[in-house]
Input
Amino acid sequence: MIISERVVLRFPKELVDKPTISALVRKYDIEFNILQAQVLPQKEGLMVVVFTGEEKIVRQALNDLKSQNVGLQRLKQDIVKDDKICTHCGVCIGLCPTNAFYYDQPTKKVIFDYEKCITCMLCVKGCMVRAIKIKF
Output
């Protein structure tokens, strides 16, 4: 079964300048999408990544990262937008650091692209009508 696993990775400073993700992708033949990254030389690195592939292989790859002392936290929360109560004001667009919310000119509606979401929850806090919620 193919799965997509959304995770936050924390790299120790010893691994920041190493090709850890590319080696992992080659070794396990999985896909990845970096949703957010903050990597500074000689400091801890942080990445929010989606790994996609066969469930067993993705699990092995994540265990491999753990064995390299990469901190791993699965994103268990999801953001959902209730189109029934959304007023399409656009506040969420300005708050979202990954452009997961955008304005669709033809329909004049705010669209939510779940694949770009990193669950930072800025949109939840900013939505005046509470159309954006956390699903556990």
The mean pLDDT is 89. The CA atoms of residues 80 and 116 lie 13 Å apart. The chain has two domains: 2-74, 78-135.
